[in-house]
Amino acid sequence: MALLEIKDLSISFQRYAKGSRRRSLAAARNISLSVKAGEVVAVVGSSGSGKSLLAHAVMGILPANARQTGTILYDGVVLDEQQLRQYRGKEIAMVPQSVDYLDPLLRIGKQLPAAGDGAKERQERIGLLERLQLGRWIEKLYPFQLSGGMARKVLLATAAVERTRLIIADEPTPGMPDADVREALSHFRRLADAGCAVLLITHDITAALRIADRVAVLYAGEAIEVAAADDFADDGARLRHPYTKALWRALPENGFSPLAGVQPGSGAVSEGCSFAARCQLATSSCAEARPELRELRGGLSRCVHAT
Q1: Helix, strand, or coil here: 66?
Q2: Is 60 left (phi over 0), alpha (psi -120 to 50) or beta?
Q3: Nearest partner of 54 among 83, 92, 17, 27, judged by Cα
Q4: I need a labelling partner for 47 at 20 to 30 A (CA). Which of 104, 170, 208, 265 fits?
Q5: Least confident segment among 14-18, 66-70, 131-135, 148-152
C-alpha cells in the first residue's frame, strides 16, 4: 500500500476581476499520484506546471484563496488538518523551495531542532550539515548572514532525518555546488532505502534520475505521465506521452531539440488536451475531449495517441 496517495487533486484560486466580481483560475486538475515507503518519486515539469502547489496541498499550506478538491491519504487515512497537526514536522516533513521559511529573528541553532527531537536527531542534522560543508559555527548565525545555497542546506537539515516517514522536497538543491547536490540527493536516497517515502519536486530531470524510482511529469497543472526512471534512456522511445519525449530530447545531452510554443497559463486550459496546440500528433478529437490518465506499458499516460 502507498504511504502517500493523491487522488484527483484539483486546485483553483479565487481572484477578483472588475469591481467585486470574482474569477476562478484552475491551477491543477485531477492529479493522481502515489508514493510507497522506500520509494523516491520525482515530480518534474516546467515553471507553472503545478509542482509546488502539489507539495503545498499535501502539507496543508495552500493560501487562503485556494480551493482544493480530491483526496490525499497518508498511510490509508485521509490527511486532514487534524492528521496534519499530528504528523507535520514529525513523521511528515517538507524541504521548502523558498529560504524565506527560515525565521529571520532566530539563530540557525534555534531553528534546526524539530518537535520531538532527541540527541540522535540533533546529531543527525549536524552530521548532514557537516557533509554539506557547513560546520557547527553555522548555528550562531542568523538567516540574513547566509548565502542562498547555505540557507537551502539548513532547510534540508531541518527536515531530513531517519524518523521521518514522508519527505516532500520542493526544489531542494538550487544554488548548491554539484558536490553538495550529489550529497543532498544521496541523503534522500539513503532515507528512502531505510523505509522513508520521498516526493522530490524538481525541474532538473537529470538530477532526479540519479535517485528516483519513478517520475511523474506535470504539464499545465495535469499529471500527463508517470514512468519508471529506467524509461528515461537513449532517445526516449520507452516514454509514452509526446510532451515527456520532447522534454527528454530537449536536454543538451539528448540532442537539444527545442519544443515550439508555450505551456498554457492558469485559466487558459481548454476542454481538450492541454498539450494539443504544441503536439505534432494532435488531431481534431484532441481538442474536443480531455484524455484520461490510462495505464500503458507499466506506466501511466494522458494521451490517446500514446502507444
Answers
A1: strand
A2: left
A3: 27
A4: 104
A5: 14-18
